[in-house]
Design brief:
55% helix, two-stranded parallel ribbon, 3-stranded antiparallel β-sheet, Fumarase C, Chain B, domain 1, 514 residues, mainly alpha, 2 domains
Length: 514
């Protein structure tokens, strides 16, 4: 995906795209409220205000919250009720969340406000838009959401900042929210009936993490195809198993997609051509080479499923109670994060498996019994030098952690709020571990590419044009074969080249990869 930080993202009554979320959250694109959103927000606010003086209780308007929903709140206490709700729920703990996650959380809550289903006043939505545009990012700890009744604590910290309380960061600098709002010329919002509740009942944090992960994995899986193909080339394998007619015998779209990428990378390879005529006597390559399209393709299809889930969620108006299209204020359970939690867990599973296969290909390069005549550990002088021996250890350590992170968070539940909230999704936790998984996958694939480049060069049988372009990009940052040197900087450079998309861009100067 290409992102233009200067391009406005319009917040209207229709859904945002995954691209919109990433543009605002990661790249700081400014947001703009569509006039139609103002109309929808004002209409739903009129519903709430009409109920404020009703003698019957209305949850979030004239009652307490959660297990305290039976307590009537007098009109003169309702501003305090909303303020107290936000303050008490801003109870996160632990390491500070990345700014992009917090910004995504705020944006998605703003998007729900714009649907006109939450009952907030326009000034509340305007304040959130102003915070995003001013780069004011509330401090949110990693613990505090169970993924049910919304991402309560994270969203409460965002609401607290809009009230001019708590701590925030601006351009990386830690300061009080009151000082940040004052510097930006933003008036702290005073929350009225229903508004505090409307700001914390959503799946916005976990959906933000899902949108970011989908974007990253879409790039990483293509990079994994590139790495797998270069490993096939460096190990003098065969490309015949990637033929389109063989893939069509099992018509999973992701599998065909990955196989096509691998064929494009291997086209014109001297090493593949040499193997075809005078190569090794093995009849079939190992599974980690031969079955790469099947594994990477299944990962692609899983990402496609999660895109479907994310788009449905982006089109949702999640709040409790919610203002219906015909003007009723109704309680509901749409804040339960199960759909998003499952999707996040699915992606952690595929991240672990793609990384596991990548590590196995790297290991084949380093074993002189399996690498087709290359030096042990791809060392310049085996025995004196250790080559990439410990780079594979680093991969193995990451893969082992990714397997642990693949255990689903969404199968867990723990009751809260005096058993009123007796089943929760743990979707926020699923998002946290997925972010670590995606980062780990990028590091494992980077080490495979670093190793494959070295193996291809050591084999010296003629690189494919794509491999040549990628290796040239690597060699601008990492020297080639020679005596052992400090290896961590080489790995760090490769990781940056993968995470920035630079190696994929180098490959795309030669051929189309999708």
């Amino acid at each position: 995906m290409n992102f233009d930080p200067a391009a406005n993202v319009t917040i209207g009554v229709g859904p945002l795209s995954i691209h919109d979320v990433v543009a605002v959250a990661r790249y700081g694109a400014p947001v703009h409220l569509d006039p139609a959103a103002y109309e929808a927000i004002s209409a739903s606010r009129a519903v709430v205000e009409a109920l404020a003086d009703d003698v019957r209780p209305h949850y979030g308007v004239s009652t307490g919250f959660g297990a305290l929903a039976t307590k009537h709140i007098a009109p003169e206490q309702r501003v305090q009720l909303q303020r107290s709700l936000v303050r008490s729920h801003a109870a996160s703990s632990g390491a500070e969340m990345d700014a992009e996650v917090v910004r995504a959380t705020m944006l998605l809550r703003l998007s729900t406000m714009a649907t006109g289903r939450t009952g907030v006043r326009p000034v509340v939505a305007e304040t959130y838009a102003a915070l995003l545009n001013a780069g004011i990012t509330p401090i949110v700890g990693e613990y505090g959401s169970l993924g049910c009744s919304g991402d309560l604590a994270p969203l409460a910290h965002c609401a607290l900042a809009a009230m001019g309380e708590g701590d925030v960061r601006v351009a990386g600098e830690l300061m009080s929210a009151s000082a940040a709002l004052r510097a930006a010329g933003i008036e702290p919002v005073v929350l009225h009936e229903k508004e505090g509740l409307a700001l914390i009942n959503g799946t916005d944090g976990m959906l933000g993490m899902l949108s970011l992960a989908i974007t990253d994995l879409s790039t990483l899986l293509t990079t994994a195809d590139l790495a797998a193909a270069m490993s096939v080339e460096g190990l003098a394998g065969t490309d015949r198993v990637f033929a389109d007619d063989l893939q069509q015998l099992r018509p999973h779209p992701g599998q065909a997609h990955s196989a096509a990428n691998m064929r494009a990378v291997l086209r014109g390879s001297g090493a593949i051509a040499a193997h075809t005529t005078t190569g090794f006597t093995r009849v079939q390559d190992a599974y980690s080479l031969r079955c790469a399209p099947q594994v990477h393709g299944a990962a692609r299809d899983t990402v496609d499923h999660t895109i479907l889930v994310a788009n449905r969620e982006l089109a949702s108006a999640i709040d409790n109670p919610v203002v219906t299209l015909d003007g009723r204020l109704e309680s509901n359970g749409n804040f339960h994060g199960a759909p998003v939690g499952y999707a996040l867990d699915f992606l952690a599973i595929v991240s672990a498996d793609v990384a596991s296969m990548s590590e196995r290909r790297t290991d084949r390069f380093l074993d002189s019994n399996r690498n087709g005549g290359l030096n042990a550990f791809l060392a310049g002088d085996p025995g004196v030098d250790s080559g990439h021996m410990i780079a594979q250890y680093t991969q193995a350590g990451i893969v082992s952690e990714l397997k642990r992170l693949a255990a689903p968070a969404s199968v867990d539940s723990i009751p809260t709020s005096a058993m009123q909230e007796d089943h929760v999704s743990m979707g926020w936790s699923a998002g946290l571990k997925l972010r670590r998984s995606v980062d780990g996958l990028s590091r494992v694939v980077a080490i495979e590419l670093l190793t494959a480049a070295r193996g291809i060069e050591m084999r010296g049988e003629g690189q494919s044009p794509v491999s040549e372009a990628v290796i040239t990009a690597i060699r601008e940052r990492v020297p080639g074969v020679g005596p052992d040197r400090y290896l961590a900087p080489d790995i760090a450079a490769a990781v940056e080249l993968v995470q920035s998309g630079a190696l994929l861009a180098a490959a795309r100067t030669v051929t189309e990869l999708h």
